[in-house]
Amino acid sequence: MENNQNDMVRVYSDTEININMLNIELAKIGIPSLVKNEFQSAVMAGFGASPNSVDLYVNASDVEEATKVIQDLMKGE
What is the value of pTM for the model shown? Predict the structure, then answer.
């Protein structure tokens, strides 16, 4: 199977606050990302979900660099 570089890959899951911070930091260095907030979707639909079910996705071609940046930023946590 051929790897399509435009595929989105989940690189991190955490709270909405941390994911939004990472989203902003990645954007600052030119890495586009997508936030998928299952918690917010579940609440709006009337279901329960874990508040840690917020995922951060990046393009497959950016996974290595994004992972390094995320690890560096989250070391202080």
Answer: 0.76
